[in-house]
Specification:
The protein is an alpha/beta fold. Helix content is 33%, strand content 14%. The strands form four sheets. Strands 1, 4, 5, 7, 8, 10, 11, 13, 14 and 16 form a ten-stranded mixed β-sheet that branches. A two-stranded antiparallel ribbon has the order 2-3.
Length: 417
């Protein structure tokens, strides 16, 4: 056993001078972003409650602030204070455009309120644009596949982002990566037609208004789908929204802690595959999932289509600690699903059930260091020391349960154990 440990140490000593580690120390990332839902309207049906048959369904958890109205300036001020106090410095705000013909029209109303609030300048923000919401037409079923050969839909996308460029992107607290305004496109796999052509048009529209090519992140990496190079390379970065396990119909419920090992097998794979493709990676964490209050998560038989992922504060903290190991040094960003997605029960905003427990867990997880060594062996010129065959072997190994291997060196402790 000791001989094996000494051999491993020798390998580490020889290889570390050439190392291009994915992260040399899992310190707190520079960008800590959380999904922000701005559509709540107090007692208005469709935000905190909805009708399912003869029943009225409420969200699984209730905010510490009560069933608030997102248009109330005091709500945003309190959110900014809490978020920044516990380590979040960026809100990713759900925004489906200037004018959308359903209840999602509320977010731009909220944005107009937000930018008048001095407290909003204390936190960075960027937009997540749901293609299935922003480009939805009247009569479309929820989560319907979006046809990008439909010029009317594409023109709305371009119009929305020309408006966003003029109205929001030039603000000092709009998030920029490499000097470029950040956009997260959600549901890119729920499109048909020429996605690459559409994204290029989007880039040109924003650049014409701001002088900058936008930095576009997309949900091109999923729990059960491997990265497709032709899709992934359209964008600057890949980021999953929530890594849910679907087992059985209806899906079986499970504990978050039971899925964390599987999620990090996938994150290892994503990190290496995306590195090879020249695309950045943003790891995502979430405390749990309970879409009881989300009408779009029910099937025609009034049953939930999504699993309930049971949350605990120790599991969430461990999730955060481990996710920092996969923060891409090129952008130094981690993402939290979510601050306030109460409908799907992923919120870490203080609730009447949990108070500040999840914010406490987040802060402790962000501040806890976890050191890594020699994650990806690179030459000083930046090219891979490993051959293509060896790189493929590394990716295969990274998708298996963690075992000692010359090709896979995540932590020295894992070798010693």
């Amino acid at each position: 056993m000791l001989r094996r440990i000494y051999s491993c140490l020798a390998v580490l000593v020889l290889l570390c001078p050439l190392a291009y580690p994915y992260t040399t120390s899992a310190k707190k990332p520079q960008i800590v972003a959380a999904h922000y839902a701005p559509w709540f309207r107090g007692s208005v049906e469709g935000s905190w409650t909805f009708q399912l048959g003869k029943k009225y369904i409420k969200t699984a958890y209730k905010p510490l602030l009560g069933y608030y109205n997102s248009l109330d300036p005091s709500v945003l001020s309190k959110h900014v204070t809490w978020a920044t106090q516990y380590g979040i410095n960026t809100f990713m705000i759900e925004w489906p455009g200037e004018d959308t013909p359903d209840w999602y029209s509320v977010p731009d109303e909220a944005m107009k309120v937000f930018i008048k609030n001095p407290d909003f300048n204390k936190i960075d923000f960027f937009f997540v644009y749901s293609l299935v919401s922003g480009l939805r037409k009247s009569g479309d079923p929820p989560l319907a596949r979006v046809d990008l050969n439909d010029n009317q839909r594409v023109n709305k996308l371009l119009s929305d982002f020309r408006y966003a460029s003029r109205m929001y992107f030039k603000r000092s607290n709009y998030l920029r990566i490499q000097g470029r305004p950040v956009i997260y496109l959600w549901a890119v796999t729920l499109t048909k037609g020429n996605l690459k052509k559409t994204v290029n048009k989007l880039r040109n529209a924003v650049k014409a208004e701001t002088g900058k090519d936008p930095y576009i992140i997309a949900d091109t990496v999923l729990m059960y789908t491997d990265p497709q190079p032709s899709l992934v390379k359209i964008f600057d970065a890949a980021m999953p929204y929530a890594m849910l396990k679907y087992q059985g119909k209806p899906p079986k419920n499970y504990d978050l802690k039971d899925s964390i090992p599987t999620i990090f097998q996938r994150y290892r794979y994503f990190a290496y595959a995306l590195e090879d493709l020249g695309v950045d990676f943003v790891p995502t964490v979430f405390p749990g999932f309970d879409a009881k209050g989300a009408p779009w998560c029910y099937d025609t038989n009034k049953r939930l289509k999504t699993p309930r992922v049971k949350r605990t504060t120790p599991s969430f903290k461990e999730f955060v600690v481990q996710a920092k190991s996969w923060v891409d040094p090129d952008i130094d960003m981690i993402y939290i699903t979510s601050w306030s997605e109460w409908n799907e029960g992923t919120n870490i905003e203080p609730s009447q059930q949990f108070k500040f427990k999840y914010l406490d867990s987040l802060k402790k997880g962000l501040n806890k260091n976890r050191h890594l060594r020699c994650l990806l062996i690179r030459s000083h010129s930046g090219s891979s020391v490993l051959s293509n065959l060896e790189t493929k072997m590394m990716i295969v190994i990274s998708r298996q349960p963690l075992t000692p291997s010359i090709l896979w060196i995540p932590t020295l402790n894992s070798w010693i154990r």
